[in-house]
Design a protein that fits this description.
Length: 190
């Protein structure tokens, strides 16, 4: 083995509490305990930075728009996933949901007005499905299809306690509480 190869030989040694082994070049690793602590600190900081770093963004562009359907190239898209459409250099953006796939092309349905969509509109995957923030402030509120408050009673803040996916399985009707009293609506046919 050449001297350069010896210097670049990699030794593995456990450092994190999770038991994930780390690899450091033997020529650069400190032998003292303070050096080992320093490298453990760096490794933890690096692991934290990697965990918090944004993932690679999947992007594409609009190919065709007709009516309320947009066709876009978006590799790796999944049905039900949210996408953000935007025009570079403009303050315009639009959310859309993937409703169909054909190879690397995705069919999107916009969650807003299509005004502004053009051939240079870029499409970025959000990587999540549409959710609704649930909390005490939602009681009695009037919401739009995206879960945003549209009533004039915006004084009560909507403090989200739970994020719930809009496309969720229904609750089991046999596990609900029994209805103890009827709700008087003033209409005899109901």
């Amino acid at each position: 083995m050449e001297p350069a190869e010896k210097r670049l030989a990699v030794e593995t040694e456990g450092c994190l509490q999770s038991g994930i082994p780390r690899a450091l070049p033997a020529a650069r690793r400190e032998r003292s305990s303070s050096g080992k602590e320093w490298f453990c600190y760096l490794e933890r900081a690096l692991a934290r930075a990697v965990a918090e770093a944004p993932l690679l963004e999947r992007r594409g562009r609009v190919i065709h728009a007709a009516g309320t359907v947009i066709k876009a190239t978006l590799p790796g898209a999944k049905i039900g996933e949210l996408c953000k459409l935007e025009n570079r250099g403009e303050p315009w953006e639009l959310l859309a949901e993937v409703i169909g796939l054909s190879g690397e092309q995705a069919l999107l349905t916009p969650l807003g007005d299509l005004t502004g969509v053009c051939a240079r509109t870029s499409v970025a995957s959000c990587g999540a499905v549409q959710t609704l923030s649930i909390g005490p402030g939602i009681l009695g509120a009037i919401l739009d299809g995206l879960g945003r408050r549209i009533d004039s009673l915006g004084g009560i803040p909507l403090v989200p306690e739970v994020e719930v996916a809009i496309q969720a399985s229904p609750p089991n009707p046999m596990e609900r509480r029994r209805i103890a009293s009827p709700i008087p609506l003033g209409v005899r046919v109901i």
